[in-house]
Each structure stands twice: as C-alpha cells, then as structure tokens.
Amino acid sequence: ALATAVALAAIGATLVGLGSGIGLVRLASRDAAVFPQAWGACLARHVASGLLILCAYALFAGQWLSGPLFADALVPIGIAELLLVPLISAVGYAFIAHARYRMGALIQSLPAVARFLVAAVLLWRGAAPDVGAFALWVLLAMAAACVLAILLACAWLPWPACPRLRAVLTPDYSVAYAG
To answer: How far is the C-alpha of 88 from the C-alpha of 104, rounded, in Å?
Structure first.
C-alpha cells in the first residue's frame, strides 16, 4: 500500500508546477523587478496544479486501494508529496533567482532531510509502524519543512505579488482623519 501511494505520488509530482520554478529563475535573472510577479505566479501554479493532480491522484489511486488504506496512506502521502514538497521547491527556486544558491539548495533539500528524520525516529523507536502512522509522520514532517521554508522566504525575500494574500496577511489598520 505504501509503495503504491509513494509511486503514484512520485509520478504526479513531476507535473506539479509545470516548470514555473525554472521560469521564475529565468525571468528574475533577466530583470529583478519582475521577481514579485513571477514568484506570485509560480506559487499560484504550484498550488493550482498540485490540487488538480492531488484530485486526479485520489481518484486514480482510489481504484486500487480503498477503505482504511486509502485514508491512511494515499491522502497524507498525496498532500505531502503533491502540495507541500512542490511549495518547498518553489521557495528554493525563489532563493536561487536571488542568487542565494546555498540557501536555495538547503531549502530544496528539506524534504529529503524530513523523510530521513521520520525514518530514523521511527526506526529508533524500535516498533515497526503501520502504513498509516508512517504516512501521517511524513505529512507532519513535510508541513513543518514547508512552514520553515516559507518563514525563511518571508524574512529574506521580497513579497510575492499576490495582492489578496498580502491584504489578508498584512491588513491596513491606519485611520484617515478629515482635516
């Protein structure tokens, strides 16, 4: 069950983002002023294509696995590998577009480090985890890696040009006085 879930997610993960990370590097390396718009488009493509592929993944994989294996393995692995890992990759490309190659490489290696830590912790505990527990641990590790990558990007890079997201995250509380 786990091998099927991971294999199908790996097939779909190659399509997430549709090359927008490399496009971000190409556009921002030519003109740094277009970085916010290109990064906003890159993030939007990653989320939209990830959701589409996740839905197709759930429908297609649901034909082979159903019941508790579907919920326990396919859904958490699909969310981790088709949404969170590509977002981490997009943040890595954003750092590469700003010529911060080491930070970009470090961020793009976060999913591998998270997978290794999950496997090491579960092996250290001694008991062999069931498929659902392993998938949930992978999902939690990828969520933590994604949050870390986004926090690093927010601290060191210009905001993406996503006006609605920025308005939600940084509301304007200024008060205009009639004078």
So the answer is: 10
Mind giving me the DSSP string for the chain? -HHHHHHHHHHHHTTTTTTHHHHHHHHHHH-GGGHHHHHHHHHHHHHHHHHHHHHHHHHHHTTT--THHIIIIIHHHHHIIIIIHHHHHHHHHHHHHTT-HHHHHHHHTHHHHHHHHHHHHHHHH-SPPPHHHHHHHHHHHHHHHHHHHHHHHHHHSPPPS-HHHHHHHS---------
Please state, rounded to an integer, the average pLDDT across all residues of the chain. Answer: 82
Q: What is the value of pTM for the model shown? A: 0.81
